[in-house]
Write a structure and sequence with these properties.
Belongs to the WD repeat LST8 family. By secondary structure, the protein is mostly beta strands. Helices cover 0% and strands 53% of the residues. It has no helices and 28 strands.
Length: 316
């Protein structure tokens, strides 16, 4: 069967990864993932591969094949891999793990190219749009900027002592970074370029978004502009949509019955897909705040999702 133009993948504690036709809601491919649970999914910029971050491996699957086997396995982490992502040309991959490290992998060569020590379990890693800095958040509450050019940690901050940073997100133009923590709080900073190439964090806002854990925070993509939104997915079963201009609450997405673990915007920001412990993923209209499709098929908690609906592969 031909691959749909919109690729949606979900993974669950039932040890499967499912591919869906996002428009019809039909599951057209299921991959067994017996080694561990999958913590994070990410699709390469060229739409060719899906990375699944597990414990302790990252496996790369061919999106266009029916093969149940990964095309590559990346194996030097020693604990749960909690974050994975790609450089915009797809030349390299980054990851963060509960083993306390952030790693960089050249997709064209085996083995890990670089490793940075966070000294605490890493929960989240994002790549700055400049493609030269990684920002990580860990279980002890540390946020660190890893300068890939200088190959060192260029900045370190702790928004709330001993409060785990669960999720980080950077605005597509590099102007803002948001960190969400276990207390339901989002910290927002402006990112400023210093005299050197180093990025400086200027505190902008503190948002008490939820009363329970925030499991994922996500800023809207470039083609959503001039509207800019922050989505926060929480253990309180809701996703809240905040207007970045003043951080006012725009909408609360209600319908999930359990924790909401992950979310991803469509390329134009018109839709949001969420993954929940209630075993479903949902497609939401940002205009109405209503769920317009439910993806059902997993038998346990659905904990991560990935979406690629861009007409063209994105490039730097």
């Amino acid at each position: 069967m031909t691959q749909p133009s919109v690729i949606l993948a979900t993974a669950s504690y039932d040890h499967t990864i499912r591919f869906w036709d996002a428009k019809s809601g039909r599951c057209y491919r299921t991959i067994q993932y017996p080694d561990s649970q999958v913590n994070r999914l990410e699709i390469t910029p060229d739409k060719r591969y899906l990375a699944a971050a597990g414990n302790p491996h990252i496996k790369l699957f061919d999106v266009n094949s029916n093969s149940p086997h990964p095309v590559m396995s990346y194996d030097s982490h020693t604990a749960n891999v909690m974050a994975v992502g790609f450089q915009c040309d797809g030349n390299w991959m980054y990851s963060g793990s509960e083993d306390g490290t952030v790693k960089i992998w050249d997709l064209r060569a085996p083995g890990c190219q670089r490793e940075y020590e966070s000294r605490a379990a890493v929960n989240t890693v994002v790549l700055h749009p400049n493609q030269t800095e990684l920002i990580s958040g860990d279980q002890n509450g540390n946020i660190r900027v890893w300068d890939l050019t200088a190959n060192s940690c260029s900045c370190e901050l702790v928004p709330e002592v001993d409060t785990a940073v669960r999720s980080l997100t950077v605005m597509w133009d590099g102007s803002l970074v948001v960190a969400a923590n276990n207390h339901g709080t989002c910290y927002v900073w402006r990112l400023l370029r210093g005299n050197q190439t180093m990025t400086n964090f200027e505190p902008l806002h503190k948002l008490q978004a939820h009363n329970k854990y925030i499991l994922k925070c996500l800023l809207s993509p470039e083609f959503c502009d001039p509207h800019r939104y922050l989505a926060t997915a929480s253990a309180d079963h809701t996703v809240k949509i905040w207007n970045v201009d003043g951080f006012t609450l725009e909408k609360t997405l209600t319908g999930h019955q359990r924790w909401v673990w992950d979310c991803v915007f469509s390329v134009d920001g018109a839709y949001l897909i969420t993954a929940s412990s209630d075993m479903t993923a949902r497609l939401w209209s940002m205009a109405s705040g209503e769920a317009i499709r439910v993806y059902q098929g997993h038998h346990k908690a659905t904990v991560c999702c990935a979406l690629h609906d861009g007409a063209e592969p994105s490039s730097c």
